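Work Package 4 report. The design task specified in the project plan requires that, given a folded chain encoded as structure tokens, an amino acid be chosen for each position. We show below one input record used in the internal validation round.
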């Protein structure tokens, strides 16, 4: 966004809480952190030379490599000078008379700007569990989303991990190899499919790079903005017999990664189709995990893909190790963190290190962390008390000249984030440029357009199985958070709508 704003001749300044660039890849430095979208897709496409010259080492890039990439981009385009690091935005208030946003930062500074763009991330507000005694633990404790910058040595230590989402699934196999003992506290068993990560095939890389623009265009037409090389099979899982269904799941299981959910077109639309996919993965767990009681505890019963599917390397097999134990919190509820460790089901588990892999206050957490005041002092926290309300996920009524990158109500977390981020950056930049050419100084989503958009986002979700489980897409992981499905399903129709809105002079927005 900074690069794009500068290219329009605008003056822009970025505030960043971290001491460096990279966002998610700056904060999430836990062992095993890597992307689960192919690296040739999980990258910027705005500059042909950049995408041609950068070399990824693996099918799925590890966190340090993605961080190096972010740093390279910042250097290459001279962006660092425009970013004020180690600075949190604490308050932003719209001054109607001046038509400007007044922004207060953690270093005590105040400044104003005509436009305010929130690029605060969907999964950046780390969430610790609401467990009594957390601060009393005497050993080392870490949250996967706030990992220290120094290496953490688990060698010879007794380690406890709380949580079994994507971050836990990636870190558990590596921590298990190092630690003396590892105890995993599981509240909800997770479906995870093998990553089949490997060094990037040079022939594949060459093929993609011979027509990168074509590759990008094909991916942007995919429902989740990635995966055109192995697209979703649109047929119903129920249109083939059990043997063919199994062979199809097996083929995708062997291919590895998120395309598993594209084995058939109706896995997230039809309960029976979904049950077939879930049963296939349950069968894999029984095959991989040797101890039947542990396998049973690891076996999920909910809709597969309803919580975000995880992608792993050796997750289930890790429970065959002699130094790894699983505690099922449904049998032994978590009672407290004690100075020595964790008490669950009346039993004390002693640890040297505790890892909280307990996720994020997703999609709204980092927006709500800022005291944002729109027209007439309206607080975004109050306006969104019953759930986020936005038009296109880009703007919100009552908050003129404020844009959100990958905000709730846009496809964001259901897509390749890099693609969604660039689509929003381009749309916002296009809007700013157009406003300038039309001599407009103010833009604000109309309440009517916003209400209609909110209904649309929910209607689309209600046609699927997504609302059937307690996922962070619904805010269900944060006690007291309103249950609203926040992202919009379907990238291509969303892009079409955004383009149409722009082509019609920013229909649904009031301009003056
Ligand atoms: P998450 O998916 O929200 O998982 C959090 C885990 O902690 C869940 O197993 C949850 O159990 C458990 N938990 C939370 N509070 C708890 C409590 N009070 N007591 C016991 N257990 C508790 O968080 P995440 O693993 O950090 O992943 C978040 C998202 O980030 C992912 O879904 C994905 O979109 C993204 N991510 C992507 C990658 C990748 O690209 N490979 C890697 C990491 C993360 P319940 O299920 O019962 O709530």
């Amino acid at each position: 966004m900074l690069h794009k704003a500068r290219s329009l001749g605008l003056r822009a300044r970025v505030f960043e809480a971290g001491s460096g660039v990279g966002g998610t890849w700056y904060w999430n430095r836990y062992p095993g952190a890597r992307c689960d979208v192919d690296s040739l897709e999980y990258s910027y496409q705005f500059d042909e030379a950049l995408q041609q010259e950068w070399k990824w080492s693996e099918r799925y890039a590890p966190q340090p490599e993605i961080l190096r990439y972010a740093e390279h981009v910042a250097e290459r385009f001279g962006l660092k000078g425009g970013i004020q690091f180690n600075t949190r935005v604490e308050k932003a208030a719209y001054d109607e008379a001046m038509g400007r946003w007044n922004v207060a930062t953690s270093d005590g500074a105040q400044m104003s700007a005509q436009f305010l763009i929130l690029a605060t991330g969907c999964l950046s507000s780390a969430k610790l569990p609401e467990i009594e005694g957390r601060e009393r633990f005497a050993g080392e404790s870490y949250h996967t989303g706030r990992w220290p910058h120094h290496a953490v040595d688990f060698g010879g230590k007794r380690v406890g991990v709380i949580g079994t989402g994507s971050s836990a699934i990636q870190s558990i196999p590596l921590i298990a190899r190092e630690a003396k003992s590892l105890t995993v506290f599981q509240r909800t068993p997770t479906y995870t499919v093998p990553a089949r990560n490997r060094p990037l095939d040079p022939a594949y890389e060459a093929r993609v790079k011979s027509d990168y623009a074509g590759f990008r265009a094909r991916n942007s037409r995919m429902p989740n903005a990635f995966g055109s090389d192995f697209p979703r099979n649109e047929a119903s899982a129920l249109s083939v017999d059990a043997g063919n269904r199994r062979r199809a799941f097996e083929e995708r299981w062997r291919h590895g990664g998120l395309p598993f959910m594209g084995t058939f077109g109706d896995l997230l639309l039809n309960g029976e189709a979904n049950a077939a996919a879930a049963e296939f993965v349950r069968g894999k767990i029984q095959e991989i995990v040797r101890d039947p009681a542990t396998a049973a505890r690891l076996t999920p019963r909910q809709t597969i893909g309803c919580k975000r599917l995880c992608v792993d390397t050796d997750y289930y097999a890790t429970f065959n190790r002699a130094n790894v134990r699983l505690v099922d919190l449904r049998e032994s509820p978590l009672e407290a963190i004690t100075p020595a460790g964790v008490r669950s089901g009346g039993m004390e588990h002693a640890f040297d290190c505790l890892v909280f892999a307990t996720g994020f206050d997703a999609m709204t957490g980092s927006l709500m962390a800022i005291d944002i005041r729109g027209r007439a002092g309206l607080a975004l926290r109050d306006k969104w008390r019953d759930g986020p309300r936005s038009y296109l996920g880009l703007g919100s009524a009552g908050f003129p000249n404020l844009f959100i990158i990958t905000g709730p109500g846009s496809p964001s977390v259901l897509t390749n984030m890099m693609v969604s981020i660039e689509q929003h950056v381009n749309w916002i930049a296009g809007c700013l440029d157009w406003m300038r050419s039309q001599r407009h100084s103010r833009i604000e989503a109309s309440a009517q357009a916003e209400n209609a958009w909110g209904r649309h986002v929910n209607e689309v979700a209600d046609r699927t199985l997504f609302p059937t489980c307690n996922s962070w897409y619904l805010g269900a992981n944060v006690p007291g958070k309103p249950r609203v499905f926040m992202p919009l399903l379907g990238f291509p129709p969303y892009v079409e709508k955004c383009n149409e809105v722009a082509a019609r002079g920013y229909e649904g927005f009031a301009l003056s």
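Residues 35-36, 123, 129-131, 144, 162-168, 170, 187-188, 308, 311, 329, 334, 357-360, 413, 472, 477 surround NAP (CB under 6 Å). Validation will be extended to a larger panel in the next phase.
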